[in-house]
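User: Quick sanity check before I run a bigger batch. Here is a single chain. Can you write out its predicted 3D structure?
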Amino acid sequence: MRHVKKINSIELLNDRPIVPLNQLSSIQAVNSSINGSFHFLGLANEIWWYNQNNGNISLCLPTLSAPHGGDGNARYEAGYQWFPNTVSVYFADRVFQGVSSVDLSYRYDQQTLDNLQLDSNEALEMEVVFYNYNDGHSFFDETKDIVGWFTNQPNAYLDTRLFDNDQEASYCVGVEDANDLIANKSYYWQIRKWGLARSGSEYDGRFKVLAQRSYAVFPMGAPYSIFAEEHDPIRKLGVPVGDNWVDVSAYDLDEWTFDSASDPVQ
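Assistant: Done. Predicted structure follows.
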């Protein structure tokens, strides 16, 4: 059993002093001004993790299934909106010669971007997810390969689908270091795939847009070192509470828009 106590304002773990981990930006997120630090450095430079969900302190041993590297701040519930102020998604089922595409663009104002950039280990993933439960008939032909991707985001990477649900087809070009984003600038990504949209029913065009705070855990580089912030849920933008998908099919839209000032967030 591990015990935490303080002696002369020095916090001890099993009678060993630990100090807040303030600047290890390449490995762990750092202390912020909302809820404080949730990682501590031991005498042998080992990293201890405070799990505020159950109050336990344990060695932080990042793995693919339990990275334990986030900064522990539920920013949205605390009143700090960190996802973009506006988002637009564009759908094209015939770009050229049997190629389809999806484009996502977004913009931050200065205050909201400040809320995202509270620590030095912050990645951002703005993601479009298509309904793919009907025998592979989603907006994209999931049997085909990606032709290419384009973006003006800094430190960008094509996200991996490792560990994702294949029946929810996700597309994302992430930002490895969100501190390089600039307020009041329009950022975008575009992904193109071979094949035309394969509509099997009117419901196959369902989609949702997700905003995900992430962080780097391992020094192998994006995308395989990037994990979702486990203490701050992935946000579903523009979908009414109780629903899982946008209530309009991508087949019927050229453009979908979200405004945080008026549209729902889950």
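The two ends are 38 Å apart (CA to CA).

User: Great, the batch can go ahead then.
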